[in-house]
Design a protein that fits this description.
By secondary structure, the chain is an alpha+beta fold. It folds into two domains: 10-131, no CATH class; 141-282, no CATH class. The protein is built from nine helices and eleven strands. The strands form four sheets. A four-stranded mixed beta sheet has the order 1-2-7-4. Helix 4 crosses helix 7 (224-240) and helix 7 (224-240) crosses helix 9 (267-282). It is globular and about 60 Å long.
């Protein structure tokens, strides 16, 4: 039988899951999908977005292909005994009929966050092998990193004349050490991606409120804007195929984020949404793809 999650407030369910991972010493926004592929629904071929990427990638499966319980059955498979389902969230829009919006968003009730559950293919048995595609690894990840930076639209100025790293939103300038100072290309691009995500908040790009607050009050390692940049950098490094950064074992770092998340249950969902928008901006992804509802997934 399908495993279900006790129906609670969706924001609380998601935040509790992130808090659970942090207490285990796992920083979910630093877990990328470079090795296991972008989390996606195997039956529809559609990738998951926003917070769902973090929730599913942090599960550490060899392949990030997921199915609803009904999709598993339709493919002739079964859920292995004792396996637990995994959380996926989506926005339920009340101003739609058969998925098509009927009224402008501001004229109706705001969308409601809801959730359903999925299983990884490793949790299943009896699935046809030819239905599970082999994972394609990026052959030249550093070249891919360079390409991402080169093709970013309306790019900020990037200066290599500093010993430290920062993004100045008033001057719209990223400063960091020269590339050869870093031990390899991976840490250099992770930091650069972090700063590029910050720069998307500039008023001439996405005009993100959190960036303006950072400029006014100074950098806060546990701020909303910093969370956006951390998640967005992980999305970009995964897209390029480079390994995740060195594990964070500092108790103070994890403790700081636990305090933030325990105080505000909407924090992580909002930050991950803006991180997705920032990543889409850098990668030229146009249009806004909503997470599929269970009805569309044949749950």
């Amino acid at each position: 039988m399908e495993q279900t999650i006790e129906k609670r407030d969706s924001y609380t369910v998601v935040t509790d899951r992130i808090i659970e991972l942090l207490k285990l010493g796992i920083v979910p926004w630093r877990k990328n999908w470079a090795k296991a592929g972008l989390p996606m629904n195997l039956a529809t071929g559609r990738p998951y977005k926003g917070i769902n990427v973090m929730l599913l990638a942090s599960l550490n499966y060899k392949l990030n292909y997921f199915l609803t319980y009904k999709q598993v059955k339709e493919l002739g498979g079964e859920i292995k005994k004792g396996e637990k389902s995994n959380l996926v969230v989506f926005w339920k829009y009340s101003n739609s009929i058969n998925g098509e919006a009927q009224l402008p968003q501001e004229e109706v009730h705001p969308p409601k966050l809801q959730y359903y559950t999925v299983f990884n293919v490793e949790q299943c048995e009896g699935l046809p092998e030819d239905k599970i595609p082999a994972l394609k690894q990026e052959a030249y990840p550093i070249v891919k990193c360079e390409d991402i930076v080169k093709k970013m639209p309306n790019k900020p100025t990037i200066s290599h004349k500093a010993k430290g790293t920062c993004y100045d939103p008033l001057k719209d300038v990223i400063t960091l050490p020269k590339r050869e100072v870093f031990s390899s290309g991976e840490p250099y691009f992770y930091i650069l991606f972090h700063m590029l995500i910050h720069s998307t908040g500039h008023f001439k790009r996405l005009n993100r409120k959190g960036l303006l607050e950072m400029a006014e009050y100074g950098a806060n390692p546990f701020s909303y804007e910093e969370m956006v940049a951390e998640i967005g950098a992980a999305y970009l490094e995964s897209t390029a195929g480079i390994a995740e950064p060195e594990p964070v074992n500092e108790e103070a770092y994890i403790k700081g984020w636990l305090q933030v998340l325990e105080h505000d249950k909407r924090f992580i969902l909002s930050a991950s949404g803006y991180a997705q928008k920032a990543t889409d901006y850098i990668l030229h992804v146009t249009g806004e793809e909503k997470e599929e509802e269970p009805t569309a997934l044949n749950q």
